[in-house]
Protein: SigE family RNA polymerase sigma factor
Organism: Nocardioides agariphilus
Amino acid sequence: MESLSTVANDVTSEVSGERSATRSEVDADALVAALFQLEGQRLVALARFFTDDRTAAEDLVQEAFIRLARNAYRIREPEKAAAYLRSIVVNLARDHNRRGLVSLRHRPPAAPDEPSAEDTSVRQESRREVVAALRMLPHRQRECLALRYYLELPVDQIAELLGLSSNSVKTHLKRGLRGLAVILEDHHG
């Protein structure tokens, strides 16, 4: 694969005889095509740092190449075109995020997707397995786990409610989680 400087030299040498104010369309196309081959995947990876969506990152890079192609005739130093293209991608990603934040503020909350019958069945079966495993644990561990993860109480409140020290609650939680893991592993293994 050619390096960008090799392509830039080729494009520059083709145009050096003309020395006109604008480059020919063929030269601009060659430069954009070479940049796409050399930088396309890296630019998508760069855009992914700014967006969480691969499709959005690819769209941003595509838009950057379109903008570069429109203005490629203005490029006087083809070896700097990659840096120019990276700055376009970064600016588009920033704009994309800004627009996304604005649209999120004005968008009504999305209606949750209704789970399929299969998803509901699997979730209910998983709950039954966890409840059955909880019932197999010692009484204190079961109480601590239910209060912590079902009612979402902090450790201090659980300790006060059960008349235990915070360290005892932490110990029961740790042992209870370990016991649940073993029971559920045995059930599935």
In short: The first helix runs from residue 4 to 16. The CA atoms of residues 18 and 32 lie 20 Å apart. The helical segments are 4-16, 25-50, 54-71, 81-106, 117-135, 139-150, 155-162, 166-188. The chain is about 75% helix and 0% strand.
